User: What shape does this take?
Amino acid sequence: MDSIDIKVIFFGALKAHYGAEIAMSVPKGLKLRSLRMLLKEKSPEASYILESCQIAVDSQLRQDTYSLDQPHEIAVLPPFSGG
Amino acid sequence: MSINIEPLTYNEIDINALLKSIRSPLSGGIVMFSGEMRNINKGRQVSFLEYEAYEVMARTKIRDIVDHAILKWKLNHALCIHRLGRLEITDCAVLVLTSSVHRAEAFEANRFIIDKVKSDVPIWKKEFFTDGTFEWGNNSDCKCAVIS
Assistant: This one.
């Protein structure tokens, strides 16, 4: 199966678990739902935060059904707390 | 129209300069909201805080929110700027200015902008307490007005 290289960047409390960013090679067509699962496997103690995160692909918020089909920048966004 | 400023800054927000920049002979009212850093949160004494953002997305979101408000309330001018990095007690964390012919539109639009910035813009607050601990903030418990 073809794979693609993605960069996943993290913010807020997630940085303590993953660092600021990681590079991953994932199967082409991987859905964000599955990426979320892979991240939980990498750091099970971050699961409770990941459940409440939104995910942006190339700066656009996407649903968990979105498929990754090319090299992307993925941002995992915990609940916001600006203002 | 929106004032052409960078919506994110690591420097102190110059409220007086920005207020001056939004003045217009067309406007009968300017509303200012300054979100300020207080020294206590949920009963705990805060020492300082840090803001971080997914900057590329936060810039676009803030600009979109301000542009939407200008159109919806027919504002003469509006701007929003948010601090990043370390803030001390009483620092301005976010400033929203709206100006319009009459005050009602400026008040409503201002409330809309700050509520949308808090709910929709990828910015995170890390509070450091005087006891040496820290905590990431969460706006999910804030009481934002619902204005569509």
User: Anything to note?
Assistant: The two ends of chain A are 45 Å apart (CA to CA). Chain A has a mean pLDDT of 96.
